[in-house]
């Protein structure tokens, strides 16, 4: 494999780009979603809380002005605007909304029950000429009661630059590696054995990360980091404006492979395990990452493993912010961002990035570089610190 060439030191302020999401994985543009729920049951993200009705029945359940339409949406190349136009032939459409995160199911909300009934009888199970002959599967939709979990899962604005989040110590550098370098890094790890977790695959270098304890065994050194990442590590050390963090010798690498729909539960990397700089290089596919700061710092998932697929209900109030991670970008966590903010990758197959629908790739690979420490953490955030918390 050709070695990745080191590059000159990079100034973080000059690379905090506000460019639009790359076309990689983009399947189309959506109209801006109306923040008002026509049913009067709006949630925090502005998306009506409709859901698919339980049970079967060819009539689609109890009549309602709202239709649940499957095999239709931006993930299959049909915009909400096109859906509204097609269903508008049967009456006034008050809104078209995503039914879930799949991008292939929508809610069509009519002003009148009779319009919904006419559309269901005409289009259910039949090709729709206005939508390219696609066969639709339609039922009446029902309103789902609001729960605490909805509050944790409601969509929030997605930033394209770290500076927009105003989280001290958080940086995002776009195009940290080239397309060719990305392909070579992926090829290098694919030549090595993967370890299977429940929903994803991992590789560990330097020290193995234990998901049960969220720590490492410092007595079991696996050797130096592989030579194919040496230029990346050198490039990180050349980044300016990271105070003393850039001088840290990174000696632990976890490579994660995420298939579509797989993410990470909210967590802070264990303070007593790793030093104050964490670097995550995104390859192959995009995603969004959410940051949460809990007011008392005490909430942790029931399972200690970040491989847990469950997004649990929070026990305290928290601040949420979100950022888009394009392929070939590197995210740097230091200071407050590293020690006090939980980071989280939603378990989605598509992500809404402002007005764009971004499909995650067939795989996303991350290279997470860290420095293993021995002994307790002495950070300035004791309420989030396993070494200092009573």
From TrEMBL:
Residues 249-373 form the Fe2OG dioxygenase domain. The keyword RNA-binding applies. PROSITE patterns: FE2OG_OXY, RRM. Residues 65-143 form the RRM domain. InterPro entries: AlkB-like (IPR027450), AlkB-like_sf (IPR037151), ALKBH4 (IPR032857), Nucleotide-bd_a/b_plait_sf (IPR012677), Oxoglu/Fe-dep_dioxygenase_dom (IPR005123), RBD_domain_sf (IPR035979), RRM_dom (IPR000504). Residues 1-21 have a biased composition (Basic residues). Residues 1-62 are annotated as: Disordered. Pfam families: 2OG-FeII_Oxy_2 (PF13532). Keywords: RNA-binding. GO terms for biological process: demethylation. GO terms for molecular function: demethylase activity; oxidoreductase activity; RNA binding. Belongs to the alkB family. This is Alkylated DNA repair protein alkB 8.
